[in-house]
Amino acid sequence: MANHCYNSASIEGSKQMLDKFEKALNKATKISSSLNKNAFYKVLGQEPTDEDVYETFGSRWFEPMWERHSATSGVLSGDSAWSPVSEFFRLLSDVYQLEITSTYEETGDNFGGWYDCCNGKETRDVTTTYFAFRYMEDEEEYMQNLLEDASEGYWESLEDLDWELLEIMKKKDRVELIEAVNKYIAEQG
Questions:
Q1: Angle at 183 between CA 182 and CA 184, to 5 degrees
Q2: What is 45-77 written as a DSSP string?
Q3: Shortest CA distance to 131 belongs to which of 107, 97, 99, 155?
Q4: Which of the two residues, 11 and 3, has the higher pLDDT score?
Q5: Which among 117, 43, 46, 45 is positioned nearest to 87, based on CA atoms?
Q6: Which among 132, 136, 154, 161 is least surrounded, fewest beta carbons within 10 Å?
């Protein structure tokens, strides 16, 4: 069973609020680099409750890495347990009046997506298969990866292909991938 969902969030807000967020995050991760139930609340400046951690934050834990890019922007990224920390991002955006644009991906459970929020309001929440997500994120580069996978036998039949990916692909890319899979199958005889 897969365990790690990678999250990456671009964060924008006022210098004052980002300073406040950064201070709270540093304090919460001083003892442990991973946020757990109580540490999530500490970052938000709230007292812990008995609410289910998955419902409240989206995941049981999160290993945050914060990189400040400017006085008013930065990137918060890291692995979480099994699912994205979208609810945590929404709560961060509410508490610190931030605009957050995030992506998440989990290869083992085959999903990826986008979650955006501003001042505590969700503005986008889209989940798809991992293959479709990667293709939509960087079509040209990922297409090369798909063709390499096909030539190495990642798919042993056309039925193994991710149909959600095939539906969103450009026609020329779909044809090229199917031809590559068929070529590998034919070579195996």
A1: 90
A2: T----SS-HHHHHSSS-B--EEEEEETTEEEEE
A3: 107
A4: 11
A5: 117
A6: 154
Q: 53: closest CA among 96, 83, 11, 10?
A: 83
Beta bridge partners of 146: none
pLDDT higher than 70, residue 123:
yes
- pLDDT for residue 2: 56
The pLDDT score that the predictor gives to residue 1 is: 45
C-alpha dihedral (107, 120, 52, 43), degrees to nearest 10: 90
Task: Please state whether beta strands 99-106 and 73-81 pair in parallel, antiparallel, or not at all (unpaired).
Answer: unpaired
Tokens of 17: 């609020």
Q: Can you tell me the distance from the alpha carbon of 88 to that of 2, in angstroms, rounded to the nearest whole number? A: 21
Give the dihedral sign, CA 33/35/40/42.
Answer: negative
Short-list 27, 24, 50, CA closest to 37: 50
pLDDT digits 0-9 by tens, 17-35: 999 999 999 999 988 888 9
Burial class (CB in 10 A: 0-12, 13-18, 19+), 178: middle
Report which secondary-structure segment, H or E, holds 14.
none
Residue 106: in which H helix or E strand, if any?
strand 99-106
